[in-house]
Write a structure and sequence with these properties.
By secondary structure, the chain is of the alpha/beta class. It contains 13 helices and eleven strands.
Length: 345
């Protein structure tokens, strides 16, 4: 039986054009949402980890977000096509991809999983038990970094040490201050709450997950850290998190967004602006250090200058002026100090 995509919300779109088949799984407890863009080499391992779960009452929705590797990608998912809802769309970004899946989902809970990450077999089982035990609306499990990164072998929450405690409840102010951070592939959340706050913002091409967590926190959703390592987070140059420059740039854009849409009392707004100044200063300072490391001295000076305008500090002013006066010497001294403090070769 052939149906149009608009006429039925639960469809499995095969790789052949316009062939649409009903997916028979009904009323699952969990909907697994997997956006896919340039993950053909990894998607098979990702799906294998989903179908190896000890908990089995779930549906899987894979969204091909106009990926340039579609031919290779569809070969990779061919063994799983009879067990997934496969949606193809033009490239519109991770927000639109996840929203398409959320609109098609039937589960009470949504489990987000990027197309290059891998769950451990007990992931869903332990997450659901944790949510029930803590009466939570969202749980974020810990992840082990693997792949092409100096963080390989380190857990996600260990890598966040220094930002704040990755335990207990996640709060709006904890997220805004950079003291708390969630890894999207480790998030299990109630679907209704995500629908209630308006899904992912499709106007955002990055930091869309951070924006959603903030809106959930403002809605008083109970969000809790789950310290068990239940997934493996793949590090490579093309994954959704990107490189350090992109991470910092995304953070700055996210704060611009928060300031633009925040609605609260005068006291809350003043507190928010104070926090955002400090956070912008920190991110611009880190951005400047990256430019200095790469020998882009002009941009390093610009970043240090912006950091200083947000929050004047002697360390920022020192690096800014020495980078202007003696850029190569400053770079050499900075790299030498970094090697000594981080034990890099």
């Amino acid at each position: 039986m052939c149906l149009s995509l608009a006429s039925h919300p639960r469809l499995c779109l095969r790789s052949r054009p316009f062939q649409i088949l009903l997916f028979m799984k009904s009323d699952p407890l969990v909907s697994v949402v997997i956006p896919a863009y340039k993950v053909a080499p990894f998607i098979g391992e990702t799906l294998q980890s989903v179908f190896a779960q000890t908990f089995t009452d779930f549906e899987v929705i894979v969204i091909n977000d106009g990926s340039p590797d579609t031919e290779e990608f569809e070969r990779a998912i061919q063994p799983y096509l009879d067990r997934v809802i496969y949606i193809k769309q033009e490239n519109r970004g991770a927000s639109a991809a996840r929203n398409a899946a959320l609109r098609a989902a039937q589960g009470e809970f949504i489990a987000f999983l990027d197309g290059d990450d891998v769950w451990l077999p007990a992931y869903l089982d332990e997450q659901l038990k944790f949510v029930e035990k803590h009466r939570a609306d969202l749980a974020c499990a810990d992840a082990l970094h693997f792949g092409d990164s100096h963080l390989a072998g380190v857990t996600y929450m260990e890598s966040c040490i220094g930002k704040g405690p990755a335990e207990g409840e996640v709060t709006f102010w904890g997220l805004i201050k950079g003291e708390q951070s969630l890894i999207t592939s480790g998030v299990l959340a109630r679907r209704k709450l995500i629908l209630d706050v308006g899904l992912f913002d499709e106007g955002l091409r990055d930091a869309e997950d951070f924006d959603l967590w903030l809106r959930l926190a403002r809605r008083q959703a109970r969000m809790v850290f789950h310290r068990n390592v239940l997934l493996r987070y793949r590090c490579h140059k093309d994954n959704l998190s990107g490189d350090q420059f992109n991470v910092l740039a995304r953070g700055l854009r996210a704060y611009d967004r928060v300031e633009a849409v925040f609605s609260g009392s005068a006291e809350e707004s003043a507190a928010l602006l104070s926090v955002l100044k400090r956070r912008r200063a920190i991110l611009e300072f880190e951005l400047g250090k990256l430019y200095l490391t790469n020998g882009d001295f002009a941009r390093a000076c610009e970043a240090f200058d912006r950091a200083n305008s947000w929050q004047a500090r002697w360390k920022t002013m020192f690096l800014m002026w020495f980078t202007r006066l003696a850029p190569e010497l400053t770079q050499s001294l900075y790299l030498r100090r970094r090697r000594l403090t981080t034990s890099e070769p």
